[in-house]
Amino acid sequence: QVQLVESGGGLVQAGGSLRLSCAASGRTFSTYAKMGWFRQAPGKEREFVAAISRNIGITAYGNSVKGRFTISRDNAKNTVYLQMTSLKPEDTAVYYCAADPYTSRWDYWGQGTQVTVSS
């Protein structure tokens, strides 16, 4: 059974940094075409944050996080990371990890980790 488990969320002051991790299990990590991060704030729709491809690590970012967040992956550890810097109160949300197993869909999701940025 595929499992994606996020960690690293918490409370941080504006301007601070956090690193989120997403550990994948139940399926060979290399069988995911891409891994991604999404977030959802209270009362808002889920928003794309970042994604990274398996092969040569092509990355993509949502406009609201470009230049502040960095996605990376460690295939040996079956883990994808989201380094978040210069955090703003509007970054407060539940952050979800997702995986695309070569279906062009985000078929697998983690349970989410809360990130709260205080002003």
Structure, explained:
The chain is mainly beta and 119 residues long. It is built from no helices and eleven strands. The strands form two sheets. Strands 2, 4, 5, 6, 9, 10 and 11 form a seven-stranded mixed sheet that branches. Strands 1-3-8-7 form a four-stranded antiparallel sheet, with no helix packed on it. The chain starts with a strand and ends with a strand. The model has no long low-confidence stretch (mean pLDDT 94).
Feature tags:
single chain, 119 residues, mainly beta, seven-stranded mixed sheet, four-stranded antiparallel sheet, 52% strand, globular
Supply Rg: 13 Å
- Uncertain residue segments: none
Mean pLDDT: 94
- What's the total count of β strands? 11
**Strand pairing plus helix content: what structural class?**
mainly beta
Could you spell the SSE succession in H and E letters? EEEEEEEEEEE
List the helices and strands and how they pair.
Layout: E1 3-7, E2 10-13, E3 18-25, E4 34-40, E5 47-53, E6 59-61, E7 69-74, E8 79-84, E9 93-100, E10 108-109, E11 113-118
Parallel strand pairs: 2-11
Antiparallel strand pairs: 1-3, 3-8, 4-5, 4-9, 5-6, 7-8, 9-10, 9-11
Give a brief description.
This protein is mostly beta strands and 119 residues long. The protein has no helices and 11 strands.
